[in-house]
Design goal:
The protein is an all-beta fold. The chain contains no helices and 11 strands. Strands 2, 4, 5, 6, 9, 10 and 11 form a 7-stranded mixed beta sheet that branches. The chain is elongated and about 50 Å long.
Amino acid sequence: VQLQASGGGLVQPGGSLRLSCAASGSILGINAMGWYRQAPGNQRDLVALIRSDGSTNTAASVKDRFTISRDNAKNTVYLQMNSLKPEDTAVYYCKAEQLYRGHQYDYWGQGTQVTVSS
């Protein structure tokens, strides 16, 4: 499984960005895709995750501002980020969880930098 993330950049506080992550390769069995973020000196934390049944988990700190969605036909997951704050600044990583013969395999995309600053 290969993950190609895009959409990061520099945005002013209050602005919006949309991240995209496209999965390719042996994608059969991917049952969840999501976004994590890591700021300097911090651990990598879950931002939002969406499962194949459409259910989602979203971090409390972004729940009212970020929305995760997926396009199954394009094997792509999106993260719409609104009302961005400086504390949202981080490298954002896409993740895919694949089930195969009873085991979960995690795949990570390259990070995309999101910087919120005036």
